[in-house]
Amino acid sequence: MNDIRTQEMNLNFGPQHPSTHGVYRGVFTMEGEYITKCVNHIGYLHRGIEKMAESRTYTQFIPYNGRLDYVSGMLNEEAYVRTVEKLMGISDQVPERAEYIRVIMAELQRIASHLVFYSSMALDMAGFTPWTYGFRERDTILDLFEMAAGSRMMPNYMRFGGVAADLNEEFMPALRKLLDIMPKCMEEYHGILTGNEIFQARTKGVASLSREKALNYGISGPSARASGIDYDLRRDEPYGIYDRFKFNVPVRQTGDTFDRYIVRMDEMAESVKILEQAYRELPEGPVLAKVPKIIKPPAGEVYHRIEHSKGHLGFHIVSDGTAKPYRLRICSPCFVNVAVFEEMAVGLHLQDAVVAFASLDIVLGEIDR
Question: How far apart are CA 174 and CA 365, in angstroms?
Fold first, then answer.
């Protein structure tokens, strides 16, 4: 940093700024072009989803989960319904076909979420072309969701004991077409952005997050694996049928903005591997277990988490034996991950902070809930 001292000034980053990825406000203390202090301000959406859960039945609350991370609706729903199934003691009653369909939807949603990350991160750096490429395949995935659930972004597809409906006859051929083109699409993504000299100069060695600091903050998901934390719930604490699939967990060591980017790119390729296996092995059979029409879990409490596209998404539910949760709290990866930005931003140029913020891949709907 320049040794010449100048008058410091405060600068608001957001909430109206498109690069804040939602309604986020960060207050930067600037000395020239460098950030000397960053203070996070969250809490502009005020939707109170956790409290809403306490006045809705367990089933009525399923659609609300799509409003958390609103680019990962299927994964949000899966985390919630698996938690309630664990509370009810019916996790082992989910039909085989339903479990495979859940894996298909989850990995499609992971790819779609990472494509939004890829596209928006490039756009934050004034790169419009990658946005058009990333949203091309994301739109195809949303078409698949529409075939299965009748909705694109807010699917309301997961159910206690399985899924809402079986796949129609158009779904599997459309999935096959997507899987066939994804390797070529991945080459295009890397060709447009990853190898770009300007992109590498703006990301390599920028906003490095050490393994120790990532652990201390409780960072999870791709941002943690970019800092050398080799941990993925699908492999290390498998839920559903993930122990049947062979895939690699991408891990990097530097923990800089580039590593956080490349881990997510590699994860998309691994999701394609999982989808290929699920496509080949999808069995016939029912897609919904016989569960009561009115869900009344026994009194008690439970916590369950899954490997979300942003990190570990967990639900803590307290039941009093009625049809509505007595208490429901969400441990969301975005809420945890954004905390480290206050340290990460210090010492960065203003424009580097914008890119570093994008590399955390947060969605404010999951933070201010």
Answer: 30
> Tens digits of per-residue pLDDT, 124-160?
998 889 999 999 999 999 999 999 999 999 999 999 9
The residues, ordered by sequence, that sit 6+ positions from 4 with a Cβ below 8 Å of its Cβ are none
**pLDDT tier at 247 (50, 70, 90 boundaries)?**
very high
Q: What CA dihedral angle connects 314, 320, 321 and 323, to 10 degrees?
A: -70
Q: Tell me the two tokens of residue 97.
A: 């076909």
Q: Does domain 9-366 have CATH number 1.10.10.10?
A: no
C-alpha to C-alpha distances, 27 to 7, 8, 349, 360, nearest whole angstrom: 16, 13, 14, 18
d(CA 251, CA 158): 30
Domain locations in the chain?
9-366
| Four-residue CA torsion sign, 92, 74, 305, 271 | positive
d(CA 81, CA 319): 14
Q: Is the confidence at residue 2, as pLDDT, over 90?
A: no
- C-alpha angle 236-239-241 in degrees, rounded to nearest 5: 105
Residues 113, 362 contacting (CB under 8 angstroms): no
